[in-house]
Specification:
Blueprint lengths: L1 H16 L3 H11 L2 H4 L5 H29 L5 H6 L2 H9 L7 E3 L1 H14 L20 H26 L11 H18 L1 H5 L11 H11 L6 H23 L10 H16 L1 H4 L27 H26 L5 H16 L6 E3 L1 H9 L6 H17 L8 H11 L1 H4 L4 H8 L1 H16 L2 H24 L6 E9 L7 E8 L9 H13 L11 E6 L22 E8 L8 H16 L2 E6 L3 H10 L9 E2 L2 H9 L2 H11 L8
Parallel strand pairs: 4-6, 6-7, 7-8
Antiparallel strand pairs: 1-2, 3-4, 3-5
Helix pairs in contact: 4-17, 4-18, 4-19, 6-16, 6-18, 7-8, 7-15, 8-15, 8-16, 9-22, 9-23, 12-19, 15-16, 21-22, 22-23, 24-25, 25-26
Family: Belongs to the SLC26A/SulP transporter (TC 2.A.53) family.
GO cellular component, one term: apical plasma membrane
GO molecular function: chloride channel activity; chloride:bicarbonate antiporter activity; oxalate transmembrane transporter activity; sulfate transmembrane transporter activity
Length: about 675
């Protein structure tokens, strides 16, 4: 008997630990999303929009690559490499269909601190000025890109380590107001860094605490050194860019292809500068020599990793948070799902692999991602097509960019940051929804301006957690109950064969950023459960749940729930009497629940809502104004359902399935 047990145990052990072919295939498809979508790629429907989007994206990648490389204090050509390799790696490992990875202003600013600290500008005169290095660049330029590559490498290693530790889901502590404030503050920093090019001034590198204010102090102290030609060209470029982009936005439905004003401006400005010799005549700073080709890969210098660990953590956290927000927005907009941890792996590998090809740190950018939205991109094929055109620039067109004025390039960058800068408009929304989050937004923005993006991000997260910790004890002294889910069916008078299915869910916990995502997941699980269609009319099933703070599996619920039969109309009543307090994330999730249920033909009614909750939800979301959704009590909500028998009858007639005639 003992031998039989041992044999059975060994068989179970071998079955548990021997990987099956299906397990390996599933693991590969989970870790290599390209294997999931590439075989099903529809050439007929998707290739044309992806090609158009790829061409437009390539223009953005080239201009931003050149500018963000300068922002990172390295030679512009390395920005072109940073627009190529990360996009390829992310297309293989990333899950965001509309996420455009490449050079990023925030990570460039952070890596510039390490570059300027380890290889300062005054070392240029001390290093050998020979052009026998890689691509004919000086030793000084190669030392600088090696520092930036080291930051990229170590930042990628940190991101992969976070993936191994499954820390991707921990980003729920980074709320939307914190991300909005941090990115807006960082965009303000980028605009400030471009002021010297917009004004044509020579300015030393200024960074550190309050460096933002020191830059403007330097500008006003040396206002007489502003070059009028550069200022006028910058103003003209900004006016043209803003005007044409607004016209493109206004008439994008009437015209199939928008005008690539960035590309037109680059060609026109370069040609004008070449013909008039602006570099020598007016002293305008130009991009300069762009080497052709891609150098052989080389490992980043490992001996300086300890010196750049602070910047590497900033690149890893800020880059990932900003990229994940764009990926989640893309998934929400186009109705697909992403894995937070897989995004960590994708961006980590993008930074690690790219660092061997002299690339600056990378991440997804809002302007490029929005460009993919507006041009109708379907998949990551658009990013791969853009890589082809970036390669053409690297091998053929790059040298022609020598005459591109830096003030024009700076103007393109400033206008490209419009999407981040207009997030100031969110302040009104936060003030009406949750004034505490309005205060967090303002304080996070101030800290980002005064110090750096990573410091502002850390401050915002700490403030958010501290406020919730302060709120929870006050809420828990009132009533701590698990969610009571009650489902019952009411026979409607309009049709004796039609059933009205109503689910009442009473939630007796606060709804804040800590549990908002869990609340949404568990509520959707309840709605999607299979329900036996032959239950008695007066059947009432009850189960105890704690949607907000505990796992759904802790409940004693059967497999019954509210996914209705084809001949049933569903309604969901949320009893909000237990919402002792909520925050911006909670309101956002409630509105998302309402919109998702509406898309599933499930009516959502909210009972026992406070005036502040009604005001916040009404202001935040475009709720259905024709149907009342807020009620004083659960009985009032049920009475409203009964009083709309005619509308339910009409909906039933529209959704009824055709019957099969008897044989």
């Amino acid at each position: 008997m003992t031998g039989a047990k041992r044999k059975k145990k060994s068989m179970l052990w071998s079955k548990m630990h021997t990987p099956q072919c299906e397990d390996i295939i599933q693991w590969c498809r989970r870790r290599l999303p390209v294997l999931d979508w590439a075989p099903h790629y529809n050439l007929k429907e998707n290739l044309l929009p992806d090609t158009v989007s790829g061409i437009m994206l390539a223009v953005q990648q080239v201009t931003q690559g050149l500018a963000f490389a300068v922002l990172s204090s390295v030679h512009p050509v390395f920005g072109l490499y940073g627009s190529l390799f990360p996009a390829i790696i992310y297309a293989i490992f990333g899950m965001g269909h509309h996420v455009a990875t490449g050079t990023f202003a925030l990570t460039s600013l952070i890596s510039a601190n390490a570059v300027e600290r380890i290889v300062p500008q005054n070392m240029q005169n001390l290093t050998t000025q020979s052009n026998t290095s890689v691509l004919g660049l000086s030793d000084f330029e190669m030392q600088r890109i090696q520092v930036a590559a080291a930051v990229s490498f170590l930042g990628g290693v940190i991101q992969v380590a976070m993936f191994v530790l499954q820390l991707g889901s921990a980003t729920f502590v980074v709320t939307e107001p914190v991300i909005s404030a941090m990115t807006t503050g960082a965009a303000t920093h980028v605009v400030t860094s471009q002021v010297k090019y917009l004004l044509g001034m020579k300015m030393p590198y200024i960074s550190g605490p309050l460096g933002f204010f020191y830059i403007y102090a330097y500008v006003f102290e040396n206002i007489k050194s502003v070059r009028l030609e550069a200022l006028l060209l910058s103003l003209l470029s900004i006016v043209v860019l803003v005007l044409v982009k607004e016209l493109n936005e206004q008439f994008k439905r009437k015209i199939k292809v928008v005008l690539p004003v960035d590309l037109v401006l680059i060609i026109a400005a370069s040609f004008a500068c070449y013909c008039t010799n602006m570099e020598n005549t007016y002293g305008l700073e130009v991009v300069g020599h762009i080497p052709q080709g891609i150098p052989s890969p080389r490992a980043p210098p490992m001996n300086i990793l300890s010196a750049v660990i602070t910047e590497a953590f900033g690149v890893a956290l800020v880059g990932y948070v900003a990229s994940l927000a764009l990926a989640q927005g893309s998934a929400k907009k186009f109705k697909y799902s992403i894995d937070d941890n897989q995004e960590l792996l994708a961006h980590g590998l993008s930074n690690i692999v790219s660092s061997f090809f002299f690339c600056i740190p990378s991440a997804a950018a809002m302007g490029r991602t929005a460009g993919l939205y507006s041009t109708g991109a379907k998949t990551q094929v658009a990013c791969l097509i853009s890589c082809i055109f970036v390669l053409i620039v690297i091998y053929a067109i790059g040298p022609l960019l020598y005459w591109l004025p830096m003030c024009v390039l700076a103007s393109i960058i400033v206008v490209g940051l419009k999407g981040m800068l207009i997030q100031f408009r969110d302040l009104k929304k936060y003030w009406n929804v949750d004034k505490i989050y309005w205060g967090i937004w303002v304080s996070t923005y101030v800290f980002t301006i005064c110090f750096a993006a990573n410091v502002g991000l850390l401050f915002g997260v700490v403030c958010t957690i501290a406020i919730v910790i302060g709120r929870f004890p006050r809420a828990m002294t009132v009533s701590i109950k698990n969610m009571k889910e009650m489902e019952f069916k009411v026979k409607t008078e309009m049709d004796s064969e039609t059933l009205q299915q109503v689910k009442i869910i009473s939630i007796n916990n606060p709804l804040v950023f800590l549990n908002a995502k869990k609340f949404y997941t568990d509520l959707m699980n309840i709605i999607q459960k299979e329900n036996a269609c032959n239950q008695p009319l007066d059947d009432i099933s009850k189960c105890e749940q704690n949607t907000l703070l505990n796992s759904l599996s802790n409940g004693n619920c059967n497999e019954e729930a509210s996914q209705s039969c084809p001949n049933e109309k569903c309604s969901l009543i949320l009893d909000c009497s237990g919402f002792t307090f909520f925050d911006y994330s909670g309101v956002s999730m409630l509105v998302e629940v309402y919109m998702d249920c509406k898309g599933r033909s499930v009516d959502v009614l909210l009972a026992h809502c406070t005036a502040s909750l009604i005001k916040a939800m009404t202001y935040y979301g475009n709720l259905d104004s024709e149907k009342p959704i807020f009620f004083e009590s659960v009985s009032a909500a049920i009475g409203h359902i009964h009083s709309n028998k005619a509308s339910y009858k009409l909906l039933f007639d529209n959704l009824a399935l055709p019957t099969v005639p008897p044989l």
